[in-house]
Design goal:
alpha+beta, Rossmann fold, 5 helices, 8 strands, 30% strand, globular
């Protein structure tokens, strides 16, 4: 990674974690009428696939890394990554899109049935999944770990979590309606 880009990303991380204002998450994010949904999880789970599919109907904020910022009105989802920093990757990035987080979804590939949402309540399961995709403090800045853990707890208390079992055969409208049904 370009050293200037790495330095800026580390600066953003340091600022978020020192102020306890937000997290950087390896996820895809889409915006729909002011609400945002993020697809978080491990590589090849379908995060970018879902964002690409929904790009016909919703606005993709970023299909790789997003910033979640805590505020009095909710959790704002945005990106600080730019197309110029894409470095040859084919990420979808919309620097002007943002929305208030409505739900966090962990993609699960579904081969047999239509796509569906599974509401999650197991805090241990959610915690483990978040630790796999929320950027930790920078090496050498271990003093930020307490803030990091507090913000993950705050995130878990703020929005609902779901597994989204997604079947690639379902059309974008079907997936969008599933998301819009989240209370």
């Amino acid at each position: 990674m370009d050293p200037a880009i790495r330095s800026r990303r580390e600066s953003v991380l340091r600022s978020l974690y020192s102020s306890q204002n937000g997290l950087i998450v390896h996820c895809s994010a889409v915006e729909d009428l002011g609400s945002s949904f993020i697809f978080a999880g491990i590589a090849d789970a379908g995060k970018s696939t879902l964002a690409n599919k929904l790009s016909e109907i919703m606005t993709v904020i970023n299909d790789d890394m997003n910033v979640l910022e805590f505020s009095d009105t909710g959790i704002k989802v945005s990106t600080y990554f730019t197309q110029a920093e894409n470095q040859g990757y084919h990420y979808l990035i919309n620097e002007d899109a943002t929305g208030v987080l409505k739900a966090i979804l962990f993609p699960v590939k579904e081969l047999e049935n239509d796509s569906y949402l599974e509401k999650l309540s197991d805090k241990g399961f959610i915690w483990r999944n978040l630790l796999s995709c929320v950027a930790p403090p920078i090496t050498g800045e271990d003093h930020f770990f307490p803030n990091y853990y507090k913000m993950i707890d705050r995130l878990m208390e703020s929005v609902p979590f779901f597994n989204i079992h997604h079947n690639l055969k379902n059309n974008p409208e079907f997936i969008a309606e599933l998301l819009r049904s989240v209370e």
